[in-house]
């Protein structure tokens, strides 16, 4: 297996989010990922350094055995890698502390080995097989992948259909509510106020406080400068890093948008695909504004108190999408949002768009 490139990028400095990309030759595999961190950047940074390489190595080992490279096997491999990495971050790091002999500098060791377990991260990973023209999308958390697919309407005009390739692991997802309610039947207050035990998400890497047993958390509080167990956490673990995976056959002209929740707090799926379609068709025509008033009161635009006015002025499609997510044609709003420093910048999450090569 030959890895031709591995790219990483951070959303801002200091920041909790990162992205990475990897290409594997000679099989023409491409991997793209978005990591949305919380309670610190350590988990997201760790995943940005390791997850794609571990997934690609495991898939290559499966492929190299020449025992078939079908979707069920691909899913099994990806899930195993995700859960194994999370187990290392959360459980094996804790066990390392428990195995220390009495009298060790346990607090100092904990400050080092628990960094990735005490913080957390969502993860969105896309794996594209160019020769098979198959795209596999794995998600843990609330980042989202959207596919835009062009076609002609009845009048011969080019339009773009929206295909959602991932499932949001959030407190308003009925399937997640059912899964967690069944797993914790004696806790009637799991979901309140549109949150899951105070969280918007229901799955994540790291986030040890939502996975460690209460006895272990109490021991950490006493011996490792750990936090007191949350009063709402009665029967952990609650979070899991098991991904949900989808597979899509790719057609010429398809494009993929990957973004953390900040993008989707500003744009609907249809708006994001439409904006990319607009850029593809009219990026050489100068300024082109679309006046649009969102009916969705949950978007940041409603919080900012402005109407959506989209603009097509950028030569780079990812910048075009980011600009319209953050103010669009409203230059005053756009400049204010882009110049906002950390830590407020974390409210405007990293946005990434990938065009699938060869389509």
Automatic annotation (TrEMBL):
PROSITE patterns: PPM_2 (PS51746). Gene3D superfamilies: PPM-type phosphatase domain. GO terms for molecular function: [pyruvate dehydrogenase (acetyl-transferring)]-phosphatase activity. Residues 1-341 form the PPM-type phosphatase domain. GO terms for cellular component: mitochondrion. CDD domains: PP2Cc. InterPro entries: PP2C (IPR015655), PPM-type-like_dom_sf (IPR036457), PPM-type_phosphatase-like_dom (IPR001932). PANTHER family: GM14286P, PROTEIN PHOSPHATASE 2C. This is Phosphatase 2C-like domain-containing protein. It comes from Mycena pura. The lineage of its organism: Eukaryota, Fungi, Dikarya, Basidiomycota, Agaricomycotina.
């Amino acid at each position: 297996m030959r890895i031709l490139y591995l790219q990483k990028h951070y959303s801002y400095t200091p920041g909790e989010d990162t992205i990475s990309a990897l290409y594997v030759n000679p099989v023409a595999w491409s991997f793209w990922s978005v990591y949305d961190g919380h309670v610190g950047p350590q988990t997201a940074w760790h995943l940005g350094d390791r997850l794609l390489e571990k997934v690609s190595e495991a898939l290559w080992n499966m492929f190299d055995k020449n025992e078939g490279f079908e979707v069920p096997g691909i899913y099994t491999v990806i899930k195993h890698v995700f859960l194994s990495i999370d187990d290392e971050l959360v459980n094996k790091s804790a066990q390392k502390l428990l195995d220390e002999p009495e009298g060790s500098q346990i607090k100092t060791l904990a400050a080092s080995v628990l960094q990735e377990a005490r913080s957390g991260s969502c993860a969105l990973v896309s794996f594209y097989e160019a020769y098979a023209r198959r795209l596999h999308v794995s998600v843990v958390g609330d980042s989202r992948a959207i596919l835009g697919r062009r076609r002609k309407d009845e009048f011969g005009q080019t339009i773009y259909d929206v295909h959602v390739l991932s499932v949001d692991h959030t407190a308003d997802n009925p399937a997640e509510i059912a899964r967690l309610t069944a797993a914790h039947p004696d806790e009637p207050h799991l979901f309140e106020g549109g949150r899951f035990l105070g969280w918007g998400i229901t799955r994540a890497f790291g986030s040890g406080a939502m996975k460690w047993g209460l006895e272990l958390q109490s021991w950490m509080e006493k011996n490792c400068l750990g936090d007191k167990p949350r009063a709402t956490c009665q029967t952990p673990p609650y979070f899991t890093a098991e991904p949900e995976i989808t597979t899509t056959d790719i057609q010429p002209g398809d494009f993929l948008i990957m973004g953390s929740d900040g993008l989707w707090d500003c744009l609907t799926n249809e708006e994001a695909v439409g904006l990319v379609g607009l850029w593809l068709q009219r990026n050489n025509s100068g300024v082109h504004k679309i006046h649009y008033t969102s009916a969705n009161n949950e978007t940041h635009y409603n919080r900012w108190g402005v109407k959506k006015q989209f603009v097509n002025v950028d030569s780079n499609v990812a910048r075009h999408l980011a600009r319209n997510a953050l103010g669009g044609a409203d230059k005053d709003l756009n400049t204010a949002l882009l110049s906002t420093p950390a830590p407020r910048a974390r409210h405007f999450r990293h946005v990434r768009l990938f065009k699938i090569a060869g389509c």
